[in-house]
Structure formats: structure tokens, C-alpha cells
Amino acid sequence: MVSFDRYFLHLPILNREKDFKEFWDKSIGELKKVPIEPVLKKDPKRSGSRFTVYDAQFTGFIKSKISGTILVPGGVSKPRVIIHIHDYNRLPDYSFNQLNESVAHFFLTLRGHEVLKAGQMENQLSPGYVIENILDRDTYYAKAVYLDTLRSIDMLRLMGDVNCSSVGIMGTGFGAAAAVFAATYSNRITGLVLDSPSFCYLGMSQNISTSDATNEINEFIATRKSRKKEIKRNLSYFDAMNFSDKINCPVLAVTGFKDTVSPPECVFALFNHLLTEKTIEVYPEEGHSPGGETQFNKSVKWLVQKISMVN
Questions:
Q1: Which of 90, 163, 239, 291 has the greatest number of beta carbons closer than 10 A?
Q2: How many distinct structural domains can be found in the chain?
Q3: Sheet containing 80-85: which strands, arranged edge to edge?
Q4: pLDDT tens-digit readout, 19-31
């Protein structure tokens, strides 16, 4: 029997540093000074009657070029948008899903992941991105991903074909942590889906998660034991749990009790700190990616309803 209280009553103390707010306000302020420079290119080969497909590129953190794919539905004037953010060391995947045709979909590619090859993910080595500049919070990889995600909203605003007055965002794993950040700092996000979120409650997840990101960080710490305390302090600025009580939009979370990649204890640590309208879909007998395509479609439908309620 599953001990539900083990998860549902999990409410650890937030561990924000004293300058947490100042750090992020300064970081976002600096990003706003950099031109977005959006570039959209229609892809005729992938476009069809259902969606017109565009390859997108914009300037993100430290002036890096960030890419993604935008699908704009046919026959819908100025549709609203759902942003999809994939997991670490994974690729955006929408080919097997029957996407909702009442909204546009933007699939953001996490920086560095554009070099990963589709069809080779089972043998894909962990890329090492999540330990890039881990000793320097100002240039750390997670900071870059979070700010890229926030900036993608502004990039979409510059598109004439979509309506960004109300935006939905769905993140998976590490992508869910980035989605939490974006929802914290953008008042345009009116619906947030967290599918098996990771990089939350790092004090626990670094000890029990089997994710690629966790393994990379733990292996790095093992070679820098004298700096373990410094690394953990730096990571606290990027722990998704530390943003959770600042979110104002409705949230739908999804977790499997047998998930070792995004442990449910850590998912509930994040979920229980949310002070907004919230729902969690629980799969007691499933692991990572609980509910599969059925849950994905259900989550998209939920997002469409939430973003459509705002005028």
C-alpha cells in the first residue's frame, strides 16, 4: 500500500537566500537591455492544413541564439499560445500527439539541446550542461535556461499571428522548473502545467533522484568536496520550490509515485507551497511520464480552458 501522507503532507522549509529577490530582479533587468532579435522562417515541408510551422530563433541570455518551433493553427485568427518546454537531455516531441488546433504551440529547445540527435536518445550521454558554471551563479546554465524561457514570451509577443495576452505554459522535468520561473515573473501566464517537475527541493532530490541532471551535479561535487557548501548555496537560487509561493496563475501538476527521476516527495514539496488555484494528477502505479499521451492531451485541454477564460 502507498503511504499517501508521505507525499501529500510534505512541506519542507523554503531555503531562499537573503538576496534571492535582488538577484533575480537584477538578472531580469539586465536581460531586458538585450534586443530580442526574433527570426521566423516558415517551413513548407512540415506545414499543412492543420498547422503552419515556423522555425524560430531569438537572442537569449548572454546574447546566445535560442531556437524553437512554432505551430500556428489554420483557420484561427490570432490564436493564443501554449509554450512547451522539454526535459533535460531530451528533445521536444510533438510528432505523436494530436495537438489541439484551437491554439498555437511553441516548442522551445533548451540551449545546447539543438545538437542532440533524434532517434539516438537511448544511447545519448549526459551532456554536462547542468554543471556549466555551477560555481558562478551569475553565469550558471540553469539561470540561462530560466531567462531564455521568460524571454520566449516576449519573442512570441512580437509575432503578428498570435495573441499573447494570455499564455499557457507546460514544462516536463527540468523544463517544468523553467516554466515555474517564467510563471513567477510573467503576468501573461494564465495557466501552468508541471509534468513530473524536477530541479525542485534540491536538498532532497540530489540524494534520491536518478535524473541525468542530478547525476551530473553529484559527480561534480564528488570532485570538488571542499566547495560542496558553495555549490548547494548557488543551487538554491534555481530550486523551483523557492519560486512556488509567488505564482498567481492556476497550476496543474502531474506525478507518478514510482517515479525515480522526478521523485514524488519533491514534486509535492513544490506543489504544497503553491498558494494559488491548484490541482495534481496522481498515478500511484506509474513512474516517469505518468499518463503518457492521454495525460498530455488532458493537460493541453486544461491549458486551453484556462488561457481562454482571460479576455
A1: 239
A2: 1
A3: 39-42, 51-59, 65-73, 104-108, 80-85, 163-172, 189-195, 251-256, 278-283
A4: 999 999 999 999 9
